[in-house]
Amino acid sequence: MSDNAARRLSRMFYRISIAIEAGKDHLSDLDGAIGDADHGITMSLGFMAVNAELAKLNLDNTLPSEVFAVAASAFLDAVGASTGPLYASAFRRAAQALKKDECLSPADQAAIVEAMTTGIKERGKGQRGDKTMLDAWVPATEAAVNARARAAGGPEMWNSILEAAEAGANSTRSMVAARGRAARLGERSLGHMDPGAASAVIILRAMKDTFDEGEREKSGPR
User: Fold this and answer.
1) Where is the DhaL domain (predicted)?
2) Residue 3's pLDDT is what?
3) Which domains does the chain have, with CATH numbers?
4) In terms of CB atoms within 10 Å, which end of the chain has fewer, N or C?
């Protein structure tokens, strides 16, 4: 199972990279309104580096937790900006969470989302309402935890995760930034979506698509 799980996570990171690359210009435009206009480029470089390192692995002999550990190191090496340490911490936390099971059940998928959010919070010392990526990640985690508590199936859980993340990202338009470069703008940051929250939605959507695909493969043709 862990062999299949490692390959699925590798496909997940590939999907994330493709999606981030496709949205790179939009993310940088969002960042241009309240930051340095480089968020899309930074995220694209980070995930391209992750995929380059994962391509070197023998996934038949790699544990899922190791995939996240490799992703953490690769992202941090490629991205020196604040986003690098944040996502490196997220991936390290996910690796630790998976070591308990090395499986990708819906409960484990919820644990990945929860662990990634914990890593970002610990590293960035932020919270929901600061107009950061946490405004997408925190509600996504709440949805994941609630879905796990009611033993929801994977597709139902991911629908609720993505819906919560999208709503959270959209809510940043009405926030004044309290952290990051955007905080320097004060009231002028109003009306703009946080680019980190926007990229978090892209990441979570790619995760959803990967895990939904896994569910369809398990159920087979109808």
Assistant:
1) 7-209
2) 44
3) 2-212 (1.25.40.340)
4) C
